[in-house]
Amino acid sequence: MLRRNSFRLPRHPASVGLARHRVRDHLAVWGHGPDDPAVDDAVLLVSELATNVVRHGPLLEREFEVAVTALADGSCLIEVSDEGRVEPRLRIVREDDETGRGLHLVETIAAAWGVWSRGSHGKTVWALVLTDPGLSRSAGQDVGDGA
User: Fold this and answer.
1) Which residues of the chain have pLDDT under 70?
2) Is pTM beyond 0.70 here?
3) Is-contact 37 73, C-beta < 8 A?
4) CA 61 → CA 64, 65, 74, 103, 146, distances in Å?
5) Chain centroid to CA 129
6) What are residue 79's DSSP bridge partners?
7) Which of 35, 40, 109, 125 has a C-alpha 20 to 30 A away from that of 51?
8) Sign (positive or negative) of CA dihedral 61, 50, 112, 42
9) What is the secondary structure of 37-58 as a DSSP string?
10) Long-range CB contact pairs, 48-52, < 8 A, 24+
11) How far apart are the first and last CA of the chain?
């Protein structure tokens, strides 16, 4: 059984904390305990993806959407959608850089992640968190191509 919840938030820095809180609460209601590593990973991923929207989203965009889906096997799918069409890309980060590490963190934590185009309505950046944290950090991750 899939259990999905989505919500819209204002494009404001305070919304990142609210997104974390709401994802944690929804997963708790769906049976994920406070010691479940998938919850911590899902919360960290939504934090990184929401931060990207707040920092780099379209200037005129007022809101963005967050969705969390609890899958039957206990895994979680996190989706963050905005109206921007520019896809996030991993970049080379130097040791003294103060930003630019978010997608590296997403790549490390998520079993897979990618971008779905929504055409003229922007994009959705998604990340999958597996129940078994050992599996979610496996080598050779497949990054979606938006197709």
Assistant:
1) 1, 97-100, 132-147
2) yes
3) no
4) 8, 11, 33, 22, 22
5) 10
6) 67, 126
7) 35
8) negative
9) HHHHHHHHHHHHHHHHHHHHS-
10) 48/102, 48/103, 48/105, 48/106, 49/78, 49/80, 49/102, 49/106, 49/125, 49/127, 50/9, 50/15, 50/16, 50/19, 50/20, 50/80, 51/16, 51/102, 52/80, 52/88, 52/102, 52/103, 52/125
11) 25
Single out the residue of 89, 75, 87, 90 nearest to residue 124, CA to CA: 87
Q: What local confidence, expressed as pLDDT, does residue 79 receive?
A: 97
């039957």: which residue's tokens?
72
Provide the residue type at 44 as one letter.
Answer: L
**E strand spans, 1-147:** 3-10, 63-70, 76-82, 112-117, 123-129
Return the structure tokens found at 80: 């963050």
Name the one residue in this structure whose structure tokens are 């919850």: 39
